[in-house]
């Protein structure tokens, strides 16, 4: 009988501890903030290039659930050492954005670091890029499945490019007018998720740099049987803009890729637009 009583008391005490832990964990849950929070750079890893150079891949976490931020290149958005502008975004979408852009470093980069620093929400966060062996990624070719990123081109007769450091294109436009955005995308068709449906292939547009607002007619246009995807964008102010298009295969958009621990296969492409 004493043993039974002792066990009962112990069980009650243990349940009380669990209840207290549960309450503590509940109180410690992060508070959702729609505005006013910081942005953290993220180093995603690196991969070697055929010419002996290396590519560093970066993304970021905008802690705001709603607010997008514009942070011009300068004291609040820069790389060091060397040139402050390494092609990083100045427009920051909400929440986690992975593999947004790349920086190429020379073959003799060795054990150096290249640090990206962002200041927002009264907080500065800096993250170094490096070539540590454990951070090497296979963004151009997933060996286990032989999967490669989609090929993107802005002219149907071009060969196109693939991977995180994809093709560039330049056009012009006018304030308040729809600027056509057309590209062609193709893929190797390797399926990553069991299903009877055809392999997934998609594209999504977003603002990357620029002084004003960008409104896309269709941010995620359909891809036709020829691989053609068409949309347009309207710009609120004159100036120089860059818009980014992300193309993904059956691995899914980048949120799905990173959540599953994969670093392949997507392609970034960028369009520079002079808006007059």
Overview of the molecule:
By secondary structure, the protein is mainly beta. It has 2 domains: 97 residues, Immunoglobulin-like (Sandwich); 125 residues, Immunoglobulin-like (Sandwich). It is 12% helix and 40% strand. The chain contains 2 helices and 17 strands. The protein has a 5-stranded antiparallel sheet with strand order 10-9-12-15-14, with no helix packed on it. Strands 11-17-16-13 form a 4-stranded mixed sheet, with no helix packed on it. A 3-stranded antiparallel sheet has the order 1-2-6. Strand 1 and strand 2 form a beta hairpin. The radius of gyration is 23 Å and the shape is globular. The N terminus is likely disordered.
**CATH fold label of the largest domain:** Immunoglobulin-like
Helix content class: 10-25%
Strand order of the largest sheet: 10-9-12-15-14
The major sheet is characterized as: 5 strands, antiparallel
Q: Radius of gyration from the CA trace?
A: 23 Å
Helix and strand element order: HEEEEEEEEEEEEEEEEHE
Total helical elements:
2
What integer is the average pLDDT? 87
The overall strand count is 17
The CATH superfamily label of the largest domain reads Immunoglobulins
Number of domains: 2
Tell me, what is the CATH class of the largest domain? Mainly Beta
| Distance linking N and C termini | 89 Å
Structural class based on helices, strands and sheet pairing: mainly beta
Q: Strand percentage, roughly? A: 35-45%
- The CATH architecture classification of the largest domain is Sandwich
Q: What form results from the Cα inertia axes?
A: globular
Taking pLDDT < 50 over at least 5 consecutive residues as the criterion, the unreliable ranges are: 1-26
